[in-house]
Amino acid sequence: MKSLNTLIKARKKSYKHINEGEQLVKTHPFYGVSPFIILPLKHAEFQNDAEIRWLEYFKEIVQNIDNFEENYQQSVKLSMEIKNGEKKQKFS
């Protein structure tokens, strides 16, 4: 878990470099002529966003696995309630 947190923090720190790069590009004389020169930085930003979301999702899965026994017991209880008609099954 610690290594996942470290990866997430490192990704979040990279926003500083991306933002600095954007500011530098926006002050470049060719930016007004061709705003496309900022696209690689935008790509890095969007890719970074996706990576952070994926790491956070993966971290959540790992946390759930860490709580496997508790989750398993809850799943068994829920399946018994559904089987006995005490609860309606939800599909989402």
Would you spell out the secondary-structure blueprint of this structure?
Layout: H1 2-27, H2 39-66, H3 68-83
Describe the 3D structure:
With about 90 residues, the protein is mainly α. The protein has one domain (about 1-85). Helix content is about 75%, strand content about 0%. It is built from three helices and no strands. The protein has helices spanning about 1-25, 40-65, 70-85. The protein is elongated, with a radius of gyration of 23 Å. The relative contact order is 0.11. The mean pLDDT is about 85.
Distinct helical segment count: 3
Number of beta strands: 0
Strand residue percentage:
under 5%
Helices and strands, in order, run as HHH
Q: Which residue ranges are poorly predicted, with pLDDT under 50 across at least 5 consecutive positions?
A: none
Largest sheet, strands/sense/barrel = none
Overall domain count: 1
Question: Distance between termini?
Answer: 28 Å
Radius of gyration: 23 Å
Structural class: mainly alpha
Global geometry: elongated
Helicity range of the residues? over 70%
Mean pLDDT, to the nearest integer, reads 83
